[in-house]
Design brief:
The structure is a single chain. The protein is mainly α and 197 residues long. The chain has one domain. It has nine helices and no strands. Helix 4 packs across helix 5 and helix 8 runs antiparallel to helix 9. It is globular.
């Protein structure tokens, strides 16, 4: 259905739309920068996990058409990652490079988040069909496995940034472990060895 992609795209923009609505109507908390940082970071991680879930869903259900949403969801994850990173360097640090460099060793979670963001960059830049052709399918697939490393760094970032109740960060860690476990199972289970992606 031609309408499916626009619907998914609009759904992906719903969180930032709602966040902007709350910001412009004064419905954020007493620390609006923290609200924006938290929400953009959470949606980055949620969309990365959803991207990683596409292949398991396709293989387990034979819903092959779902694969056409993976690139869009991955790019939406990168979009929220850019917003999250920009919130830190602009709204939080006011582009003060000296302050940012001093902040990194004091707060290791920033290093983990920065690594997660850097690992997303080549994935976003090579997400087009032209790049798939340039790299070749095999090399492109190997490169795009960086998403697992990015997700792991993102989960570590989330665990380290939360100081009190770490229940939610560890839920994401468990979800990532399940998704990695399913991928390993696909590799070793004879019935799934022939399925690409």
């Amino acid at each position: 259905m031609k309408i499916a992609k626009p619907v998914v795209f609009l759904a992906g923009l719903a969180p930032i739309t709602f966040l902007l609505y709350r910001a412009f109507t004064g419905r954020l908390s007493a620390n609006p920068i923290q609200d924006i940082t938290d929400q953009t970071g959470l949606w980055t991680l949620r969309l990365i996990m959803l991207t990683l879930a596409i292949t398991p869903i396709r293989r387990l259900t034979n819903w092959n058409s779902i694969i056409r949403f993976r690139r869009m969801i991955g790019l939406l994850a990168f979009f929220y990652g850019v917003l999250h990173f920009t919130t830190y360097i602009w709204l939080d640090q006011d582009f003060d490079l000296h302050s940012i460099l001093k902040d990194i060793p004091k707060r290791p979670f920033i290093t983990a988040g920065f690594i997660a963001f850097l690992l997303m960059l080549p994935l976003a830049l090579t997400s087009t069909r032209k790049w798939i052709g340039r790299l070749g399918g095999r090399r492109w697939q190997l490169l795009h496995r960086l998403i697992y490393a990015s997700a792991a760094a993102g989960v570590i970032h989330y665990i380290w940034v939360v100081k009190l109740d770490t229940t939610n960060p560890y839920r994401y860690a468990m979800l990532l472990a399940v998704l990695l476990g399913i991928r390993i199972w696909f590799k070793v289970a004879p019935g799934f060895r022939q399925s690409p992606g």
